[in-house]
Every structure is written in C-alpha cells, then in structure tokens.
Amino acid sequence: MRDLVEIGMGREARRAYDLDQIEIVPSRRTRSSKAVSTAWQLDAYRFDIPLMTHPTDAVVSPSSAVRISELGGLGVLNAEGIWARHADAEGAMAKVIEAATGDEPDSALAVLQELQQAPIQNDLIVEALRPLRDGSHTVAARVSPQRARELTPALLAAGVEVLIVQGTIISAEHVSNDEPLNLKDFINDLDVPVVAGGVGDYRTALHLMRTGAAGVIVGYGQSTATTTDDVLGVGVPMATAIVDAAAARRDYLDETGGRYVHVIADGGIGTSGDIARAMACGADAVMLGEQLAEATEAPAGGLYWTSSAAHPSLPRSEITGLARSGRSLEQVLFGPTDSPYGTTNLFGALRRAMAKTGYSDLKEFQRVGLNLRT
Amino acid sequence: MRDLVEIGMGREARRAYDLDQIEIVPSRRTRSSKAVSTAWQLDAYRFDIPLMTHPTDAVVSPSSAVRISELGGLGVLNAEGIWARHADAEGAMAKVIEAATGDEPDSALAVLQELQQAPIQNDLIVEALRPLRDGSHTVAARVSPQRARELTPALLAAGVEVLIVQGTIISAEHVSNDEPLNLKDFINDLDVPVVAGGVGDYRTALHLMRTGAAGVIVGYGQSTATTTDDVLGVGVPMATAIVDAAAARRDYLDETGGRYVHVIADGGIGTSGDIARAMACGADAVMLGEQLAEATEAPAGGLYWTSSAAHPSLPRSEITGLARSGRSLEQVLFGPTDSPYGTTNLFGALRRAMAKTGYSDLKEFQRVGLNLRT
Amino acid sequence: MRDLVEIGMGREARRAYDLDQIEIVPSRRTRSSKAVSTAWQLDAYRFDIPLMTHPTDAVVSPSSAVRISELGGLGVLNAEGIWARHADAEGAMAKVIEAATGDEPDSALAVLQELQQAPIQNDLIVEALRPLRDGSHTVAARVSPQRARELTPALLAAGVEVLIVQGTIISAEHVSNDEPLNLKDFINDLDVPVVAGGVGDYRTALHLMRTGAAGVIVGYGQSTATTTDDVLGVGVPMATAIVDAAAARRDYLDETGGRYVHVIADGGIGTSGDIARAMACGADAVMLGEQLAEATEAPAGGLYWTSSAAHPSLPRSEITGLARSGRSLEQVLFGPTDSPYGTTNLFGALRRAMAKTGYSDLKEFQRVGLNLRT
Amino acid sequence: MRDLVEIGMGREARRAYDLDQIEIVPSRRTRSSKAVSTAWQLDAYRFDIPLMTHPTDAVVSPSSAVRISELGGLGVLNAEGIWARHADAEGAMAKVIEAATGDEPDSALAVLQELQQAPIQNDLIVEALRPLRDGSHTVAARVSPQRARELTPALLAAGVEVLIVQGTIISAEHVSNDEPLNLKDFINDLDVPVVAGGVGDYRTALHLMRTGAAGVIVGYGQSTATTTDDVLGVGVPMATAIVDAAAARRDYLDETGGRYVHVIADGGIGTSGDIARAMACGADAVMLGEQLAEATEAPAGGLYWTSSAAHPSLPRSEITGLARSGRSLEQVLFGPTDSPYGTTNLFGALRRAMAKTGYSDLKEFQRVGLNLRT
C-alpha cells in the first residue's frame, strides 16, 4: 500500500495506474506460440480461453452466449435485462437500434430506460437460458445484489450453474434500512459457485473472497462508453486494482490454507494488448463486452452500452456505435485477420504475447516483467 | 507542505493537483443512497444541498436565485453586476446574448465591458433582492473587496443575510495607498456572516479565517471559460488548494477551541464527479456557475462567463456558449435524466457517490479514500 | 543539480520543466497594481518594462524598434537580417509575405533562404539604425558569434550602445579550425555592454558571465514556430533553465563580490502568464518575438519566424501565420483589451500578477511561491 | 535497475522512457560542425554514417540498397520479402500501391499478406543481391530466426557479408518442439558477422552478445505504422532500452576483456532529433525505415509498413501513406532543405547536434547530458 502522495497538507492519495500505462517486457527466452496454453478453470468448469462476457444486452443474447461457449469462453446472460423483461426481445432491441441510428441518437438512452421499466418475468429467464442448458453449455447468468435473493430461485430452476452477482460497486456488507443482501449467508445457501463484484480495492476484494465467492470481479466494465468517472467521481485504475485483488487472493489463499479465488478483470480493456496486460497484472480471466460488440452474432447490431446505461435516474454509460466489420465472434476471438489494431484475434494475440515472453501457461504469465510508461 | 520538487538549482516548487487527477476509491461497505444526507449549515442557515452559486450574472438573476433557494441551495446575486447597474437588466442581458450569438461573437465581451461601465444604483440592488426577501429565502449578495465598505450599508438595508466578499484573489491585508479594506475590522462591524475569498493556499485561508469570516472560498471560479492562468500565470490546482484550506480549518478550529469556518470550493468543478471529489478533499460546500448555465431559469440563455469577464482592461474569462438542453434547474440538480455525462442530477450523483463508498453525511465523506491518476 | 532519474542502467537524466508546468501561488498580502514597478535597468540603460525583442525580421524593423523604445522596452535589430542585406527591405519582406499567404505557403521558407543569401552591407546597417540613433533611443543590434568580430566595428560606428551576440546555442569557448570567437577577449575590447546567448544550463551561463557579459540570454527563442527540438534533439525546458541561470548569477555575484549579470529569458513564452512565470523563475527580463508579431507595427504582416528559419541547409523554424487583430504595439503591451487570452496587455498583466501576489518590484517577485502541475 | 514503482500491492514495474521524453542538453563548449565525424565501423566494414535500413520492402529494393551504400550507410534487403518471392517484384509492389491508394485502402494489408504466401526462391535472392555484390557494396540481408538455418546457405552463396537475424522479439534460447535456432551454434558456424535482434532489455541483450553477434538490435522498428503495443501489450520504450543495451555492451566488454558489440536502435525514431537522442542514449547506429519511405528511390511510392504487416494471422503494422515530397535519398540524408521539421538532412542534423554540444565523434557523444521532460 505504498506510493502515497501528499496531495495537500495532511491528506494522502495513492498513485494508481491504468492498463494502458504499463507494458509487458520480453526479458527471457522466447517460445513457440503452439506450446502455449490459455486454458482456465473456474470451480468444476474448464474453459479454453479466460473469457467471461460482461453481462450487457448489447453483446449477450441466448444464441451469442451459446456461441461464446462453443468457442471456449463463458457467456453470461443478464437476468435483469431485455431478455428477462420482453418476450419479443429482438423487437425490443430493434427499437434501441432504430433510435440510436436515427436522427436523434441521443434519444436511444431513453428508449433503453423505458424498456428496462418492464417487469422481469421468470418464464422469460427460463426460456432465455434454455439454449445453453439444452446444448450442454455452462449456464451462467447475472443478477444485481439488490435482486439476487428474489431472482436466484428462478435462475437455479432454469439451470444456472455459475451465478454472477454484479453491481457497479458492491461490498460484502451493504447497509440499508430495507433488507440487505448478506453475501456470505447468500452464498452459503447455494450449491452453485458465485462470482461477485465489481470491486476496486484490496480490502473489498478480500471481504468478498471471505463470503465464499468462487471469483471476484475487479472493475465495473469501464469502456469507452462508460462515464461513471464523470458522474460519481469514482474510479478504478485497473492495473493497480487487479494487482491489489491478486494480493488479496494470495493473502486469502494463505489464510484459508489453500482456497484459490479467481480474479476476473472487467474494465479498461480495449485491445488484445490490454487483455495480455490484465493477465500480466494477475487476472485469472477477463470480462469482455465492447470488444465483442462488433461481431455479427452480437444482438445490438454493433452498438454497445454497459448495464448502467439503463439506470432510470442516473445513467452512467453512453450508447456508442461501432462500425460493423462483418467479422464473426470466432474471428474476433481467434482470427485470422488483416486488421492490425488489436481488436481481432484477441486470444491468438494473448497466446503470442505469452510466447514472445517465454511463458507457457496463464498462471506463470502473471509474473512477467512490467514497464511503466509515464 | 511536503512533495517539493527542485525545478532548478536552489528553487523549489510544490506539486499540486487538480480535481480531475484524483479518484474516489470505494473501499468499505456500501449503503443505500436513501440513507444519505447532503445537508449543510452555514451559521444559522441550513441547506439541503451544499450549493452556493458563483456570483455571475450569467447564472444568477433575482428569479433564478429564488429558484436555487427553493431547491435547497443558496443563490448569490452579484451586487456589482448588471442587476445593480441597469433598471432593464433583462434588456441589457439581451444585448450580450445578441452579440454572442451574432456574426461576431468575440464582440460580446466588449458589450459586457460597456454594460459594466454604468454606475451601481442602490435602489436597483434593493429591487433585485426583493424577491428573495419577500419569499423568505436566505438573502445573499456578493461585493468585491474594493467596494465592500461602500456598498454594504445598502446591502444590509436591502435585507442581505449572508455577505460574500469575493475577488479573483483576496487577502486579509491588502496594501494600497488608497484606503484599503481591513477585513477583520470590516467583519467585526457586521452582524451578518461573511464568506470571503478566493484564496489558493493554506496561509491566506488561515488569515481569512482569523478575520472572523464564516466561510472561506477556495479558487476563483475556474471554468472552461476562465483564462486567468494564461493572463496572470497564477493558478490554483483545486484538489491541493481545498485540502490545504481544510488543514487551515482544522488548525484554526484548534487555535480557537472550536470555531468551524466553512470551506467553499469555487473552481475546477466540471461534472457531478468533480463535486464529489471536491467534497472528498475537504470542502463543506461548492460554488457552481457553469454547470447551471444551461438551465432554463439561467438568465443568459445558455451562455456563461465569470465576473472577471467584464474587467475593463484585462478580462480573464471568455463568453462560452452552451447548447441549451431544455432542462430546468431542478432537473440539473436532482434529475432524473437520460444524459450520462455528469452534467445533470448533480446532487443525486453526489448522494450516490457517498452511498457507494459507505458514507451517510458530508462531514464523514471528507475522509473517503483517494487515488491519484498520473 | 538534484532530481536525477535513472532512465536506464547507469545513465541519468535530469527532470526539467517548462514554464507552462508551473503556476504562481498567491500566498501573502495583496497589493494595488498601481503600487507596482516593472522597471528594469541594464548597465546604464533604464527601461520601464523588462522587454527586449527577439532579433527576428518578422518583428523588428527600424521603425518598430523605435516604437518599442518609446513604449519602454529595448528593440534589437538583427544586423544579419533583411535590413542589413537589402536596400529595399520592405520589398524583400513583401516577397516573403506574398509567398506565405499565396497558394504554396511552404515555399516561403525558400524565399527567406534566398533573401538571406544577399551580402550584408555596412551602409545598410548604418541606415537601419539611424532612426533609433536620431531619436535618442537606446541603439541595440544582434550579431551571430560567427560574424561578431567582422561586423562589430560597423555596428559601433552606427551608434550601437548595447550589443547582442546571439546564436541558437553559444558557448564561451567555441572550438574550430577557423579563427574562433573568444568571447572574453572580444568583450574586453569593447566599450559597450554585451548581452550574449542563448544558453540552456548553469555551467554555460556561468562561463558566459565570466566573459564579462552584461546579460546572458537563456533559451533560443522557442516559439510555436520553432522546430529545433525535432531537428537536433536539443531542448531547453525554460523554467529549469532560467532557475539554473539565476543560480549562476548568484554564484557569479558571490565570486566577483558584486557583479550582477542579467538573465534574459528567450523562449517558451506564449502568454502574459508565461512572462510572469519567467520572472518568477528568476529572469530579469524577457525577449519577446511571436507575441509582438500581430501588432500593426510589426513588419511581416502578422507572420512570425525566428532567425534560424533562414538557415541555408537546416532551418529550424516554420513561418507561422497569425490572424492580425488590428492591435497596436501599445495595446499589445499595455492594453486595454477585450480579449481574455493573455496575448494583449502583456505588461499590464505582469503588473497585476505582481500585485495579486503582493510584490512591488521585479527583483522581489523572483521569490514568489510556485506550484508544479503534473 | 532502479526507479521501480509499486503499481499495486506487491507488484513492481519499472519506469521506462521513450526518446521523445528526453532532451539533449548543450552544456559545454561548442564546435564547428565541420570538425565532427559521424563515421561508424561494424566488423571490417566502415560507414560514413551510422545508418542501417530497417529490412522492409517498403524502403529497401536492390537499387535503393545500392544507393544507401553509395551514400555511406548499409542497406539491408529482406530475404523473406517480395524480392525473394516474386520474379516481378515491382509488379507485386505495384499491386500493394494500387490497393493502398485506391477506394479501399484497408484492403492493401490483405494484398500484402497474399503476396507473402508465395514461396521464397533462392535464385531470386541471388538476383536481388547482385547489384550490391557487383557494385562492391557491402552486401547485407535479413532472415527471420525461424528460417535462418534454411536460408543462410543461399545468402552466403549470394555474397552476403553481414547477416541480419531479426524478428519482432528474439532471444538466445527459443523453446520449441520443432527444431529451434540455437543462435550461438549458428553464429559460430558462420564466417560473416551477424547482427541480431530485436531485444528490449538488458538480459536478452547480454545473452545475444554472448552468442557471438557483432551487433544487437534494440527495438522492433516501432514507427507510426506499428501497432504491436495494441496487439500484444508488449512495448519497448526506446530511451531506456538503448541505455540498458549499452550497459550490457559495457558489461560484456568487461567480461570478455574487450569484445565490443554494437548496439543498433530500431524503433521510436521519427525525426533527426530522435536519431541524435538515440545516439546520446548509447546507440552505435540506427536502423531507419519510415524516415526513408518518402525518398524518390524508395520502392513503395511513399507508403510505409514494417515486416510484421504481412503476418498471415496477426499483423502488427498499418500501411501508412506519406505524401511524397520529391526528395532524393541524398537530400533526405544530407540536405540541403527548406523544410524545418527534422525529416530531411537527417545526418546533417546529427552532425550539428554533436557540434552544438561540443562532441567530435559518436562514441564521445554517447556521454552528452540529458534532460527528462515530464
């Protein structure tokens, strides 16, 4: 917890760093990229690539979640989003697209807010998760801390195998006059592994680990669409936050004599280079959203927003429009590509970064040397 | 007073930081935003939100000051501005708007300079403050240090309850061949609380506190319109300046055995996130100007300038034009909104920032953890 | 000489700062700007404002030099420029202006290079300096180190009272197979004060002071037009360089038991705020060029370039075009103005910066507090 | 290896610097640029200027390699590029140019990828190197580590005198299931000097020196076209990397009792100022690519890309288009010029930078003082 700066008399702030301020340093032998493994395992579930999806309707539909799974990652459906509220989810999505690509693109956020006013229907959730369940894919869904207790029974009934409890910023102890969510009790009562977040510091990460979570999410999905920083003054510089959560993981491993809680980085990742940097800082996996929005399988036609875009009184995400490239999810994740910008062949690039620095698995790669650009 | 840098042989400068260089770190429990209070009290006057207005004619008219008060803040009329000099203040304002939105927008500053040449008339001040007085709102007005002695009797007669003595940079001891303002004597002779500023450092803040001021203003209303930095080479990085003034407040509290002087941040605040950061650095309240200019109640039709724009020989503010959104003051302050940029629902956002970091009142929130982005 | 950084193994670099990275901190009493003196004295010559002109043809003609003098500064004619080479200097200047404002503005540099090929004629120099001499203005001219010995007799004959020996970077010991200029001998042989430069560090400044120079120029006229940095990799961050030269001045004062050599800052000054910052760092006076180019009296019609623009094989300055504002030199230097950007009323702004920080003369103002923005 | 920063709890990164963050400080005598030597010797080969070409087809054709040699540098042909794969290399190049300057410039990378699929033909390599060999120019060619063993016999047969083994990032020990390249054995078996790289740190540089290489390349040709940083998260801040490689050179010199291995900087060099900075950091020579692309002799008509642009699945270079100036290689290298931007008269500028700082040869110039801009 060093590198404190006195920003004024008697008040310190800690210097914190973003992923784009660091660089991986090749400083050992090199290795063939064929000899590299990017495999990742969460609880009983094994994945070829360390990828979960950020639970935004802009990227994850029932069918795109299946495709993510087929490609080796974990698709996470938002159990409080459009597919949980609208029988004609595609029609609802079309309204957002129409507004965002029409004459008044700023009106799209209001459309999204309105769609989000419809009630959540358990049968729609069951229906939305069916393709994953029927296809023998790992079934994962996200709930907010506020509604976790209410919605989880339906999710379990719908076959959820990994539960994601995710809000912009969460903690193990939420203070409220209403009935709060005690995460520890909640997780104890469940038979499925829980991944919870986002957090931005060591202490909250450690507290979440102590609730029994299988994974802790660091960050709140910061993307070029996110404006949380401007709205709340709250920020989570991701390189520092991931390193701190990895320190919590290490300390918790020691305190429990061997329970390893996964650290999942969700935010500040724009390119394949940032994925490599996040892993190098200590992440076990990354949550991607914006990077997948351009894929042909993404349901929003190239648009992107995070789940906080639909907040009824204080949204913290724009709806950004990406030119669609015609690339499939497979090409975005594994190439090949004739685009040199780090936005396609995301995991081929990770594999190559590991090879060029001489590492053969992700756990080792967390020790790669780093430079800081200033 | 550490973090000194030797910028050359034998000469030190102190590293100082702006609000947009810091980030609030959520690192504790979270809390429901309903359980949060943003109340603030200055002398006998209690406010629902820690808001004073920057005393610029672009934002504060007699009627907008009333509206600010109805919404829980304190509107401060400039007793040396257009409403104090022109019986037809709205007509005068229209001339500025016409020039700024016409073919030669640069000519608007000259129009403003010319309007400012008209003499101040006490009866106009009385008239301008009448709606506040008649509506039982807290009556506040601003005078410059140069004219404070001359204008204050009329202001008191007009019912002023909080007097703001504000210049770009002021001190407790102004040296002059003309009769200077001794702030201590001046304040001693008054029955109403005085808020004075702006200041940029610990020593001047402490000296102003010792004059008996109820509040000290930090900063000089830096906004995107301000050019003081380019003109004078003088700057007040606000995160550091607020922290230093809060240190002066603490030391003065100790030296007096309990007199608490409020620190009001006036400058460097662009978004609701910056309001949260200013409070986190130790401010008791913020002075807002530019953020309110887009409101339908603001008298300048969406334009903004600070009071130094009208200086006859050395103006230090542009007239900037904001696209008007059609939002009311109420919506700007409290939402709801479909805009994600931190420019509306300003105090709803503050409330949420406090909740997400686990604080329930503003005084506690001054201790929240901070990161420094570099 | 502290603040060294190891940029790699076994190699240090020193952190150095530009003027726009520092801020003047008001931290004392304030003062009326009427009670402030900006007077400066070099040898026997007293000036109302601490201003010399950068010896570029773009700003200094015989008549503009007279005007500068009338306004309280020192105009320095380039004795190797257009007025020394062309009987019809105005016609020559017109060719540059025509090229720069024509269809191929990039060709203007070639025109300037060609004009600079014409031989220097002593009688033209005499003629060019006549208006200064006849008007009882201080007569000052600039020569390069390479041609100082050759041209100085003619300059003295033409009445030069202050001689400026100025190249991009000069030293007290120039090593050459040709006959070098030994500045110490050269200055010893003269009866007029010599100002020499530019330098960028403590050691060279001290060596130049030991040659007997009355003033040392710091910097090489860095402006928005200058590209020396890109061409040579050589840079002089001005805040640090001025502070270092002021340290040399102090040490030389001590070693001589009282000889005070003036430090003149030439570069990195874009606005009146930067003038204040340069003085705050320890400069006794500033050399201005680009700031004066917009004045109606400037001979290049609003264009600007430094003298290195005309180098025959390796020019290091663009020709930049400024929109002409119709302002006179008097207004640029002393206002009043309705422009808030720090480009007019340059010395009124300096006076006000001194007043707001409580200083009454320039020598005291060199001690004002500084912040560093990072 | 100091200047470590704790970017988070228990994890350090090292601050590293780019060439454009440093400045050369003139701090001694000055010198006539005529008295300066830029000569450089690699093994038995002497060069008037410390220039090798980056082995990209965009700059190096058989005829441009000859021209580089005539002008005093070393042209390096890519033995795995278009001239090695296409009998009608000019026709192949024309296809790239046509695509890059047509309606869909983004398609040019795919054209390049396709051209690169054609097999390498030994007789084409022989033919391509003939003009160098016949003209008694130093014959140099580049192979990748992957194909070095296979192609080197043909290269030697074709008269290669200096062999460049260059990949994006290489190491002395490449781990692979296929037969790896053991550089030490490989170099031992050869009679010609080998230059190998790129590397980014001290350790790899030292290991490469121990393989018997005559020169070590630092960097991977970073240019405005390169996107390796975005794709892999790997970066080599060049000022730090050159200094570190120079430290390895010094340590290896000591450990061998006198073997001097040359450090060649390949990347981060945009202007002549950057060439001077690279030499000042300790480079013995620079590899230039992008800077030469505008020359009339360059085969790609003003376009530029690095060799990684043609990677079949993960390209890491754009094809950038430069406006062609009509300048010859001779003018780009030695001027004269009427362009002040540091892109022509590259080695005249280096000579002048050395003169202005008082150095007469390149080895001494590696000790020049440096500032760090922050």
UniProtKB/TrEMBL annotation, chains A, B, C, D:
Keywords assigned by UniProt, alphabetized: NAD, Oxidoreductase
Keyword Translocase: no
Presence of keyword Cell inner membrane: no
Family matches, as SMART domains: IMPDH
IMP dehydrogenase/GMP reductase domain segment(s): 19-301
Gene3D superfamilies found in the cross-reference section: Aldolase class I
Stored Pfam families: IMPDH (PF00478)
Family (UniProt): Belongs to the IMPDH/GMPR family.
Cross-referenced NCBIfam families: IMP_DH_rel_2 (TIGR01304)
Family matches, as PANTHER family: INOSINE-5'-MONOPHOSPHATE DEHYDROGENASE, INOSINE-5-MONOPHOSPHATE DEHYDROGENASE RELATED
Protein name as catalogued: GuaB3 family IMP dehydrogenase-related protein
Organism: Pseudonocardia nematodicida
